[in-house]
């Protein structure tokens, strides 16, 4: 037997993950000192979360510790499953150190077990779209984790993630921008368009002034780069900014009328870093 594993930082909707048969590890976030586990939207109050951020709630994220990973993975090792864990970018978190320690201990205890981890070098639905595509491939190849790993390697640089942050102060909170620059940028209506680069890190794709120019740039990038790949949908996500999501969806539908376009909220683990008002697009291309 073999299984695919992901975590909720991949942001696949809970019904999609269930339909694909993927095992999901919940990831934690904290609101005003109370820790919660993201459930891929099943019972998440997105409006309340982002309203809290706008009102000044203290939000943060953290990784899982070694004992939690051991508890999660032990039953699969005991059952003799071949395991392929499709993970978000290792450049974005230190959670993979305790994971590696837990797996090392379990492999000593279960020496015949087979475990592989694939680094998607991506976040949010950039990782999620790869889980989606891998799960389809996995089902078609008889659950071969090695063949699925090789398939993931063939598409890892074909997944584009671009997003626009609504309020720069949230980037300042995360240390990606100084508070002074964030304040000045907001006054000037600066809108950096960010993306996940080939190394799996967030970087600035371009800087424009004004929300309309930012969306026009995102749509233009999509028009020049989008390539349908293995039935993958186009995802448009938003952090409590339904109007912007709808505007972008309309523009993308004009550019690629045959594309399946899926819209959904940005989850609280990702949203804690980018803040309300952020929107983004995830799609396949010849290269990032």
UniProtKB/TrEMBL annotation:
Q: Which InterPro entries match?
A: DegV (IPR003797), DegV_C (IPR043168), DegV_domain_contain (IPR050270)
Asked if the Swiss-Prot or TrEMBL record annotates the protein with the keyword Secreted, the reply is: no
A Pfam match is DegV
| MF term (GO), any | lipid binding
Keywords for this protein: Lipid-binding
Q: Which NCBIfam families match?
A: DegV
Q: What is this protein called?
A: DegV family protein
Lineage of source species: Bacteria, Bacillati, Bacillota, Clostridia, Eubacteriales
């Amino acid at each position: 037997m073999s299984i695919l594993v992901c975590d909720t930082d991949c942001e696949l909707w809970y019904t999609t993950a269930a339909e694909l048969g993927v095992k999901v590890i919940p990831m934690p976030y904290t609101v005003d000192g109370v820790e919660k586990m993201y459930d891929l939207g099943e019972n998440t109050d997105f409006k309340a979360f982002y309203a809290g951020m706008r009102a000044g709630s203290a939000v943060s994220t953290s990784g899982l510790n070694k004992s939690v990973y051991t508890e999660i993975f032990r039953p699969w090792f005991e059952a003799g499953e071949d395991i392929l864990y499709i993970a978000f970018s290792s450049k974005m978190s230190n959670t993979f150190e305790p994971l590696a320690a837990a797996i090392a201990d379990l492999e000593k205890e279960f020496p015949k077990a087979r475990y592989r981890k694939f680094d998607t070098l991506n976040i949010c639905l950039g990782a999620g779209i790869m889980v989606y595509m891998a799960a389809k491939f996995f089902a078609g190849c008889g659950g071969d984790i090695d063949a699925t790993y090789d398939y993931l390697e063939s598409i890892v640089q074909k997944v584009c993630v671009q997003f626009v942050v609504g309020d720069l102060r949230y980037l300042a909170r995360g240390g990606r921008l100084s508070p002074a620059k964030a304040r000045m940028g907001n006054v000037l209506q600066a809108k950096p368009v960010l993306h996940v680069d080939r190394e799996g890190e967030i970087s600035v794709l371009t800087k424009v002034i004004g929300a309309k120019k930012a969306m026009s740039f995102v749509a233009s990038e999509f028009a020049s780069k989008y390539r349908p790949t293995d039935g993958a949908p186009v995802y448009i996500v938003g952090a409590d900014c339904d109007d912007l999501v709808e505007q972008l969806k309309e523009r993308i539908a004009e550019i690629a009328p045959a594309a399946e376009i899926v819209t959904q909220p940005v989850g609280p683990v990702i949203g804690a870093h980018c803040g309300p008002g952020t929107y983004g697009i995830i799609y396949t291309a010849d290269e990032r």
